[in-house]
Amino acid sequence: MSIISLFTARKEAAMKEKVYFHNISHVIVSFCFFILTGRAAAFLMGQIAEFDAATTEIFPFILAAVCTLLVFRLFKTIIPPPDGTEDALPVMAGRFRKRPFSMKRYVLETIPHTFITVSLLILVMYLVTIAFTSDGALINASRYSDSILAFLSMIVIHPLAEEYIFRGLYYGKLRSMSPIFACLMQAVMFAISHNGVGGMMYALIAGIILGTAAERSNGITVPVAAHMMINLRTFLYNEWLPDSLCFSIDLAVMAAGAISFGIVCLVLKKLPSYENSKKPPSTREEADFDD
Predict the structure, then answer these.
(1) pLDDT confidence of residue 201
(2) What is the torsional sign of CA 58, 44, 200, 109?
């Protein structure tokens, strides 16, 4: 190896380290704001007046999510990336890898992957509930009322905001370092944002599952859909449906997940791969979700 090649390699390695440090700092700073803002807002609301459980849970979360998005945006404005790159894709239309769009593949990927993800989350929920029977902090709707506000929060606001922040912004920002590292990192942060040992353990495993779903499906559509379905299940089970019916529905969903796994393994492999498409490799370059 020539001296010039060695110098170039070291320069590229140094630049890569700077980019990685910038990306990690970017994520950690915004996550700290997410935690601190939510905790501070909940504390202040408790000091000001007596609010119902749903209000105490929802408004601090919304404030924390908004502040996190603002900090995430301001960070790269105040401290630009060392390599001078800019994020390429818009907010909800962004994908981790640019590639030719196929409606057939999109449908065959989204629906089966959603059922597989939901099935795994249900299984994990049962296992964590068994392991932490004395811990009442497992994610559920029992602390909520059956108000419209609580319903919208669980089914719409929380899934959209959490998936966009954790599986979109954070995973998308760290993915260039390593998909595995990014998945574990966002899952740990997702767990920290929850309460109780049982709740944190469930959130950790769920974060890994949802992060894997985001990677496999090339975006946050599947994680959002799965998160919404799980929260809808939890809300209905806690407020409306008897336990016997709930268990039967869970078995049916897990059976659908097993069938979906077969579809993914057998059907999707027969479709033309993206790598063999006529599009040039540059159309599949990585991009973040933070525009």
Answers:
(1) 93
(2) positive
